[in-house]
Amino acid sequence: MRFIGLEGKGKGMQGFPLRVTTVAVIGLGKIGLPLAVSYAQAGCRVLGCDCDGRVVDSINAGVAHIQGEPGLAEAVRSLIETGQLSATQNTAAAVRSADVVVVIVPLALTPDHQIDFRSLDAATMALGMGLQMGTLVIYETTLPVGTTRCRLALMLE
Questions:
Q1: Which of 67, 76, 22, 30 minimizes the C-alpha distance to 50?
Q2: What is the pTM for the complete model shown?
């Protein structure tokens, strides 16, 4: 079990230790899969979530679909074998059993250079279906100012 000391600047955060045993990582791409592996190697149980069934099947078979990351293939295989890492398309179920949720879904641009929020919105809606009181949610992606407060928080509420 890992403990993270929160310094408590925000509402409801009074410096209490957050017990982190299970982390859900939503988005198992070039950054998400190595991040999931890092959490698992640090001792957390990691539930990786992805909407692509081929990605989920590959990871659950112990095969990293991301190439060129030193040690990643071996780590995925080992962590799957020990049960520290697993993958699913059922984001809501994974979030339901997680202490911390990290969303690492990329934002794309439309042909007219507007932000395409569809992937992030879908991940947020799936996350919201399983969100429990007290779960820490982290968006690990570049977002326009106000997106978390004015868009994503409303979806999660």
A1: 30
A2: 0.87
Domain count, the chain: 1
- Which CATH number is 102's domain given? 3.40.50.720
- pLDDT for 35-85, tens place per residue? 999 999 999 999 999 999 999 999 999 999 999 999 999 999 999 999 999
Residue 90 in domain: yes
pLDDT, tens only, 111-121: 999 999 999 99
Beta strands in the chain (DSSP E): 2-5, 17-20, 22-26, 45-49, 85-88, 100-103, 108-109, 115-116, 136-139
The span from the CA of 60 to the CA of 71, in Å, is: 17
Which residue range forms the structural domain that includes residue 88?
Answer: 19-156
* C-alpha closest to that of 104 among 141, 146, 52: 141
